[in-house]
Amino acid sequence: MERPPAPRWWNDARGRALFYQAALLAGLGGLAWFLIANTLANLEARHIATGFAFLGQEAAFGIGEHLIPYSAADSYLRAFVVGLLNTLEVSALGILFCTLLGGLIGAARLSPNPLVRALAGGYVEAVRNVPLLLQLLLWYALITEGLPAPRQALALFDSVFLSNRGLKLPVPLWAGATPALCLAVAAAALAVMALAWAARRIRARSGRQLPTFRLAAALLIGLPLAAFLAAGAELPLERPRLAGFNFTGGVTLTPEFAALLFGLTVYTAAFVAEIVRGGILAVPPGQTEAALALGLSRGRVLRLVVLPQALRVVVPPLTSQYLNLTKNSTLAVAIGYPDLVSVGNTAINQTGQAVEGVAILMAVYLTLSLGLSLAMNRFNARVALRGGRP
């Protein structure tokens, strides 16, 4: 018996799908080739250099704040690294503080006290409806205009001074008991992480709850204190002192950094508060009632029963707010904080290689966003409910 002829590809759903996908990829590839070729031709016609060789050239501009040593004689690559570290610093601290502040305000939004509830609601409504850029300018103006000049600086302690140039703090020197103290702090942090892991394993196997908080506090305080005393209890400090019109020595918390960190924290915390409030309300009321019936205090009910369940609802939208905070840090250029975008703009203006500079900025922020999303997704997978096998 003769076989029927095979259907032609345009009569087959799979064949049509492959054709459409191939056509779409070809179209996108052609468009990309046209844009790249056109850009290169225009740059060549205007005698503008292309490529990333400029990263090895001398930057010839200073950066006011840097976590690693930097001078104007360093390369553009090192300048980009300095800007990236500044961005990471303010983003990491902003994420930490907005989480703490937002969680506190979110819980206050559900307080039985009407005054606390009204104050928390007023904060959320006021902060969320004012653009972040205006808030940054406000905090920066309050810090620079509302504080005295260095000669009239407020002496908070013996070696701590507050002025419109920032907060000057003493910094420990790498001598005396400082090395032993740093090693002890790192060892205590690792011990606390091991303790938390062991406590989870014990709770999962036997249901027994270890006094994790008290043990962690004892490790974080006792181990560094013992190392400090054993090393001679000597902590040499580099203290700030007034020299001319400004302070020298010590470490400075600049007005630009403080205004940016405070603005990002306050703004993002308002959104985090609503996320936390929604997560708490998503927990069935019966869970709270059952915990209260067992004799738990309201504080322990919130910490041990409600928040662990609300975390499963909170984490996904919280990831978006963390990403927004990291990307909103680019507004630092408005108040003079040398973040990655500010350094990139200076490099672009000096070299004229805007395409490469913008490509670097896009690649860095794409990497940061994807990395943060990956970390939060892994954490979300750990706290998510796992259904049993059928």
Structural features, described:
It is built from eleven helices and eight strands. The strands form three sheets. The chain has a four-stranded antiparallel β-sheet. The relative contact order is 0.12. The mean pLDDT is 87. It has a domain of 200 residues: MetI-like (MetI-like fold). The longest helix has 33 residues. A hairpin with a 2-residue loop joins strand 2 and strand 3. Helices cover 65% and strands 6% of the residues. The chain is globular. Helix 4 crosses helix 7 and helix 8 packs antiparallel against helix 9. The protein has 390 residues and is mainly alpha-helical. It is found in: Cell inner membrane; Cell membrane. This is Amino acid ABC transporter permease. Keywords: Amino-acid transport, Cell membrane, Membrane, Transmembrane, Transmembrane helix, Transport. It is a multi-pass membrane protein. It comes from Phaeospirillum tilakii.
